[in-house]
Amino acid sequence: MLAKTILSILASTLLVTSSLAQDSFVSTDGTTFTLGGSKFYFEGTNAYYLMNSAQSDVADLFKQAGAAKLPVVRTWLFNSGSDNVWFQKWDKSSNSMTINDDDSTGLGRMDYVVQQAAKNNVKLIFAFTNNWEDYGGMDYYTKNMGGKYHDDFYTNEDIIDTYKAYIEHVLNRKNKLTGKAYKDDPTIFGWELANEPRCDGGGSLQKSSNCNTNTITKWADNISTYIKSIDKNHLVAVGDEGFFNDASSSDWAYNGGSGIDFNALLALENIDFGTFHLYPASWNETPDTWATKWIKDHISSQSNADKPVILEEYGVSADLRDKIYPSWQKTIEDGDLAADAFWQLAVPCNPDLDEFALCSTDNDFKTIIGNHASAMAAKNN
Question: Which residues form the signal peptide (predicted)?
Answer without folding.
Answer: 1-21
